[in-house]
Each structure stands twice: as C-alpha cells, then as structure tokens.
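EI: anyone free to look at a 388-residue chain?
SC: sure, send it
EI:
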Amino acid sequence: MNELFLFVRPPRPLWPFNGPSSAFWPPLAFASMAAMLRENVADLRVEILDAPVLEMGWRTLESELRRRQPDFVGIGEEAVSCVEGLRLASLARQCGARVVAGGCFFGHVAAEALRTGLIDVVVHGEGEVTIVELTETLRGGTDELHRVKGISFLRDGEVVTTEPRPPMHDLDALPFPAYDLLPVERYGARSRNHPHLAAVELGRGCVGSCDFCILWRQMGRFVDGKVRPYLRTKSAERLLEEVKWLVRVHGRRHLGWVDPCFNAHPGIPAGLAELLLRDGLRVGQSAWLRTDAIMRDAASGALAACVRSGLNEVYLGIERADEESLEGLHKTAGLDHARQALQVLRREFPKVVVIGSFIYGLPGDTPRTMRTIHRLSSELRLDQAFYI
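SC: here you go
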C-alpha cells in the first residue's frame, strides 16, 4: 500500500524568547512516534514537516500537502497554537487525509476537538504505542477503533473514549527518535544559548501535580480512576548511547532536556554525567530543575557532576511572588527553595545561566500582584526571566 503518515507542525507566531534561530526546538514527540511507526508498520512511509523552522508559511504548507498527498496527518499542539492546529486539520481534510490529533492540548479537549468536524481521532497521553495500533486499525477501516486503547473518536455523532492506555514503563525500549526526518541543521543554527540544538528526554512524568501544568497529567497514569503523577527515566547507559548518537551522527552540540523536572531522580542525571565525563564527551545542556532539589544535589555532588559534563543553562519554575498563590496551585517548591537555589547556583556555579519562569493572569490577579511578581524577578538577579 505504501501510504504516507505525515506529522506536521504548522506555521505560528514567533515567541522571541531566544530569537528566531532557537525559538523552536525539534518536535521530539513526532520524531519518537515516527520511529515507532517505521519500526512496526509495514508498507508505510513516514515524514515530518516542521513549518516554523523551515520558515514555511500557510500557502507553501498547503502546496506541500497537495504535493505529498498524505493518507494520515498527525497534529500535536499546545493551547497557544490550537488555532493553527485546527487550520492545519482543515487543510489536511481538504487534501483527503485522515487527521489524528494529540499532545498537550487536543488530548485533553477531545470532545470539543472532535465536534469541530476536522479531526478523526484524538490520542490521549503518550502516543508511541497508540499510534502504531491506531494506524494499523485505520488502514483496515474504522469498525475496530473501539479496540484501540487511549483514543477518542465519533461514532453516530457521539464521542467514544476507549480504555486508557498505561504509559510506557521501560523507556529504554523506545527506538532512537527519527532525527533523520528533521532538518536538524536548522535547530539552534545561529543561537547563542542553544547552538546545534537537540531535544532529548531523560525520562517522563513528574513528582508534582501543580494545577497550572498539563505535563504530569499527559505523562501520568490512572489510579482508581484518576490521573496521578508517574515518574520514569531511561537508564544512564541508554542515555549515553543516545547522546553519542546525537553528537556523532547528527552533529548536535547542545542537549535541550525536555523533562519537566530533570533532577527529580538525582541518580540518573549524575550517572549520565559521570559516563559522559568518563568518555571525554562534554556537551552543552539546558534543563528544568526543581528548586527544592538543588540544595540536595549540590550537597551530594550530583549537580557539580552535571555542570562538569556540560550543563550550562537551567530553568527554574518560580511562578509567583507569594506563598499563598503557590499553595493554591499545589506547587510544593516555595519561595525559600527558589532563593536558596539561586544562592547555591550563584556561589558554586556562577557560569551557569539561570532563567526563571513566572505566571501572570491567575484569577484574582491585579496590576499590583503582577508588579510584585516583576519586582521579585528583578530581586532574584536572574540572567533571564519570562512571564506566561
């Protein structure tokens, strides 16, 4: 049959946090699912089209869709780009493709997404196993969709949601992401912070359950009918092989760890760092760190090992300027943790770039509370701050 499954990241406005050359990280989820499809589904071509990094607009994207004539189009968007995702779905439908949507937005608003009439199937949670089963099922028709775990679809005008699919436990079993399907030379090509960037995951999930974050839900597991945080990691040995492959095969020089809490399991980052140092491989790294674990990792030497192996940029989720707001968001890392973490980083690792994130616009926010957040970000002497 040799059908085509095309994953697409559509055009979108630029978020100029780091500039055009590093605003878009490689779409790791697409690359991971593409690798699973290539490995497990016969007679299927798999491609990825990353419009933003290719500086491709809507007219060119439409021409590409008509030229390639995909049988399936995969879409994964965040809330801020959901409109672009639906516009892409409309174009894909016009080209005769079946549309599969997932990720951190569509997977959590399945009924609304399906009732637009633009999306055929919504995938919930992690997609690697589901996308293989779903593609094989769709190729045989839609009568057996109810047998595929972790999806939603319409049947006779009603939303059908199947049994949740358990998240993968053994992440070492995943194939290396299909980086050969991406224009790798464009990611971080002219970036100061992320030169020659690769997106890579240490593991999945989180130990927290902050109200504002979708990632722990996206990567969580169902316990007694409710989603709970579920942290898993790859082994240090598997990570070493993946890093070597990214550096030596794909010429990457900076690892952008996509984990929501890189240092939640201190033994894995430190273990990887020691292996990198043993093999003489020092590569730049950016990672989100939990502020309430930085003191622990500094005392144990784990943080120092990571810095020696190349960790040179860290992101801290500080979020708010008052403990009451943090408690209301169920964020367990407080302001004291943030201040202590900053002290340790400035004193012991002064060359590490420290970036803080803050949240504006919660219910009850006023110009005064927003000014308080801005003052805190200045007082902490961060290298950079961004406000969501």
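EI: The CA atoms of residues 235 and 349 lie 26 Å apart.
SC: 👍
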